[in-house]
Amino acid sequence: MPTINCEDVIYDLADLFKMFSDSTRLRILYELVNGEKNVGELSEALEMNQSAVSHQLSNLKAAKLIKARRDKKSMFYSLADDHVESIIKIGLEHVMEE
After folding, report:
1. CATH class of the region 7-96
2. Whole-angstrom Cα distance, residue 54 to residue 15?
């Protein structure tokens, strides 16, 4: 593992992991592993109101973990890149170890 000398990088890494510390955000990311979805689809899958889901989507987008695509009047959300899916899968493997 490379040596990290810059404190800013460590703070950025801590901020990244904070995004994964909220169960609602994790549930959204997990849903998006299976492909892009709009707010309504996410709300239904998570059994939450659209306002709460939209708030968390905004946080995830600001953290560059998801991206948005407009199709007419709807916004569709997906994972920003393969790294996000890898982090989720590695985390799941870790917690499911015996």
Report:
1. mainly alpha
2. 20
